[in-house]
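Subject: sequence -> C-alpha cells, single chain

Hey, anyone have a minute? Need the predicted structure for the following. Not urgent.
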Amino acid sequence: MVSAVAFADKGPVVKKSGNITYIDIGIYQPNVEECYGMSVPDIGIELDWIKIYPNPNPGQFTLELNLHQPEKSLVIHIYDIAGKVVFRSVEATEGNHFHKELDVSFFQKGVYFIRITGKDKVGVKQIIIN
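Reply:
Had a minute. Here:
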C-alpha cells in the first residue's frame, strides 16, 4: 500500500498504486496533541466511465455512463457546494451503457457535484450550472 499522512495545513494527499487510489487525510482536533492518518481506498475513482456534457451547462445536460460490468440500478445524487443533497434519483439500467438527459434548470447557478453509485462502483464529477 502506498500512503502518506497529510496534516490539516497541507490538505489531502492522493497516491495511486495499481488500480487503487489512496486518499490520505490528517484529522486535527483542537486540544488533541496527535494527528491521526487515515487511508481510504476508492474502488471507483477512475472517472473515465462518467461523461457529462455540456459542462458548464444551463441546468440541462446529458449523463452517459460506460459501465464495465452490467448494473441493475444506479443511484444518482447531486450535491451543492455545501454538501447538501439537492437531487436524488434511482435509475434502472440494462447492459453496460447508461444514458439520461437531466434537467435541473431550477437549480441556482453555481458548482455542484454529481455522485453515481452502483453495486461495485462509485464516481463523483463536478458540474457547473451557469
